[in-house]
Structure formats: structure tokens, C-alpha cells
Specification:
single chain, about 250 residues, mainly alpha, elongated
């Protein structure tokens, strides 16, 4: 029996653990994915603006204004990073507590394997798979939901993004060039939204960029989950086995 087969069989046997773990995933994976979507979305919005307003087509004054706007947009990234850190930290604490209780119930099994000379890396690998399989399933479900309800989710993300930019950046107070205003300060006589925030909102991402945002957010969420699990699970196994030998 392969390690994957043993992990799958263990999940089917320990259904109470699986149900609790799925509840934890339901509570924390969507917020982590949403924050990663916001983070990836703001980066793609900046790239989208730079692509539309190419440097060779804009006078120097407008380039400085655009660079100021892009720099101001990045000011919201620390908020996303802090929110991700808090969500991942709480998720890690719950995973540690859940895995500690799970390993405690299987303490005799772990101690027996240890005394038989089974490598701890093999035991940790199986335990990690038991946590990764439901996590991968939850990410797959969320990815399908993001694709199926793409339009609604785009609207929600853009709405939240706009409110956060308005609250935590100066984009809404950065005046753009209005129609008919020319000269040193406004060298392009084109009709633009009245400020930077309205300009960002008026240039939504196309479908291909949003698909990229979705893929990047899924990948970043997967990396976050793996990082949390690879830290929490060994700590739980160490704590349980140490108590067993006392």
C-alpha cells in the first residue's frame, strides 16, 4: 500500500477528524484566497495601467503623475499582507490544536511505528498528505466557483478594492487632466476621469488578466497552506511523541 493509499484510508476511517478539519478549511481558506485575489488584482491593475499608458505616448508630466498613482496603489499591499498573516496565523493555531488532538488519539500507533524503526519523515509525510488532500479538494472547489461565478466575483473584488483604495490611499484626491485643460500641468487634451481612483475603476481588467489573477491567487493560497501545515504538523507530532515518552 502506497503512502497516498494509506493517507486516503486513514481519512475515511477518521471521519470525525475529517469533518472538523473541513470546517476549519471552510472558515479560513476562502478569506485567505480572497486576500490573495485582492493582492494579485491590485498588482495586475497597476500593470494594466502601465500597458494602456505607455511611456512613449505620454508626456513627462503625465508619466510622473502615473508613477505617483502606481506607487500610491502599492500602499494598500501592507494591509493585505497583514490580513494574510493574521488569517494564516489563526489557521496555523487551529491546525496545530486539531493535529495535536488527532495525533493524541493515534499516539499508540505513532509510538509503535517509532519503536519499529519507521522513519519519522515517512510518518510526517503520511500525516501531511492527510491534511493536504482535503485542502487540495477545497482549493479545487473554490477555483471552480471562481471560474463559474467570475463576473459576480470580479464585481465584488473591484468594489472592495475601490473602497480600500479610497480609504487607505490618496488615489481619490489625485486630480487627472480634464478635457480642454492643456499646458504645463495638463499637456494632454483628453477626457479622463476626474481623479486617480475613478481612472482605476474606469479601466477594469479583461477576462484573460482576471483568469491570471485567479490562478495566481490559487497558487499563493496553496503555498500559504503548505507553509502552515509544514510548520504546525511537525510541532504537533513532536509534542505528542514527547509526552508519550515521559
Amino acid at each position: 500500500m502506497t503512502i497516498m493509499s494509506r493517507a486516503w484510508a486513514s481519512l475515511k476511517y477518521h471521519r470525525h477528524f475529517l469533518h472538523r478539519y473541513l470546517l476549519v478549511l471552510t472558515l479560513f481558506v476562502p478569506p485567505i484566497l480572497f486576500m490573495n485575489t485582492l493582492r494579485s488584482g491590485i498588482q495586475q491593475s497597476g500593470e494594466h495601467l502601465k500597458l494602456i499608458f505607455k511611456q512613449e505616448t505620454m508626456p513627462q508630466v503625465d508619466q510622473k503623475w502615473l508613477h505617483s498613482l502606481l506607487a500610491d496603489m502599492r500602499n494598500v499591499l501592507p494591509l493585505y499582507d497583514l490580513s494574510l498573516l493574521v488569517c494564516c496565523g489563526l489557521f496555523g493555531v487551529l491546525v496545530f490544536l486539531l493535529s495535536f488532538r488527532y495525533c493524541t488519539k493515534r499516539r499508540s500507533e505513532l509510538v509503535t511505528y517509532d519503536r519499529l524503526g519507521v522513519k519519522k519523515s515517512r510518518l510526517l509525510g503520511q500525516l501531511l498528505l492527510e491534511f493536504l488532500i482535503p485542502a487540495a479538494f477545497s482549493l479545487l472547489v473554490l477555483f471552480l466557483l471562481l471560474v463559474i461565478f467570475q463576473a459576480a466575483i470580479e464585481t465584488l473584488v473591484q468594489s472592495v478594492q475601490s473602497r480600500l483604495l479610497e480609504k487607505y490611499t490618496a488615489a481619490s484626491s489625485m486630480t487627472t487632466a480634464a478635457a480642454g485643460q492643456t499646458g504645463a500641468d495638463f499637456p494632454i487634451a483628453v477626457q479622463l476621469p476626474s481623479n486617480g481612483l475613478l481612472l482605476i475603476n474606469s479601466l477594469p481588467l479583461d477576462s484573460s488578466r482576471w483568469f491570471y489573477v485567479t490562478l495566481q491567487a490559487i497558487l499563493m493560497t496553496a503555498v500559504s497552506l503548505v507553509a502552515v501545515l509544514t510548520v504546525a504538523l511537525p510541532l504537533a507530532v513532536f509534542a505528542v511523541t514527547r509526552r508519550s515518552y515521559k
